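Hi all, a correction to my earlier message: I attached the wrong file for Gamma-glutamyl phosphate reductase. Here's the right sequence:
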Amino acid sequence: METAVNVATTAEIPDLKSYTREVAERAQQAARGLALASGGQKDNWLRRSAELIRSRGDEILAANEQDIAQAPDYGLNAAAVDRLRLTPDRLEGIATALEEVVALSNPVGEVIDSNIRPNGLEVLKVRVPLGVVFFIYESRPNVTVDAAALCVKSGNAVILRGGKEAFHSNQAFYAILQEALGDVGLPEQAVQLVETTDREAVGHFLRQSDKISVTIPRGGKALIERVAAEATMPVIKHYDGNCHVYVDRAADLDTALRIVINSKCHRPGVCNAAESLLVHRDVAETFLPQMAAKFAEQSVEMRCCERSLPLMPGAVPATREDFADEFLDLIISIKVVDDLQAAIDHIEEFSSRHTEAIVTNDLAASRRFCAAVDSAAVIVNASTRFNDGGQFGLGAEIGISTDKFHARGPCGLRELTSYKYLVQGAGQIRE
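and the right structure:
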């Protein structure tokens, strides 16, 4: 059976408070049903969703064309339009990603720890779903499917609030995901899409801590700051990715050149791309002119401190704001530092606690850097681009958290769970 794509508008939802309450209540009820679902049912849903995406590709692509046609009205640049655009190959990639989630182990019910007490009580620490996830994300329609897959596989109901630029594409995917839930006997309201782009609806959801277990914002800094300020439930935040690469005095400079270019240029618009380069003074005169030539080949704008500026032809002076900025573009800030501690101090001042890397052959220096730098991922002699769920062997991810509680770094299936204690007795009472 085909589910019609029903595009709602704000005008059709005059009472946002009641609407958001109903959505949250349905999600909470669905979460109770998911808690009793087997891993096999959830995997069958993933397979059925992949099957429907393949068979209904024309429907999804037609909806996507509506979004592409409206992209100029939203001021999207070429890169943003490319992220928004769906193609047959990209649809196949989305379906394949669902099947890859099937292959991941089911975290629900996993025994994290266990022990038998002297009085005979058996105490188990068991992984359980969080409950209801409110997920707010940017205008990439594949994220609708990725987030739903991870949430349902980990036993959570999810309320999806995508960007207005992908509204029609998201609706098409949502219709398929919900149909597949019904086909395999799972609660259809386990996945819900917010059917309005009105920002006021977000505020109503953020006040429903009695229904929603956690909010995960994935988007620009302004969105995340708003969610953090207004949410009445826990938030797993993904702030800026102001990532650093430090080239130590003991670095292999050829290795450093490759790592810096990959960290900055492989995909400059993503959160784990390097935004700042720190170089030890002892290697600056040798390394920085070589680095400048490599950056010039890649059309990277170099914003340099006073000490690095003369060593990098074509560079411009850096401001303090440049060292704090997440450029998400072919731009990088560069600073010469006196020693390892100066690099650590600079990172402490300007980092967003996402990803930092050191290039060095000095074991003591790498150990000190790893111990002193307080970021979600600290990398030795490799690109910052490796801070990713797939690259870390975690499978798919819903985002990269810069928080320290409850999840940090790539958030996959296990990060979408909590735990509870199960205690088995045989009539014991406490004396």
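Sorry for the mix-up. The CA atoms of residues 257 and 290 lie 8 Å apart.
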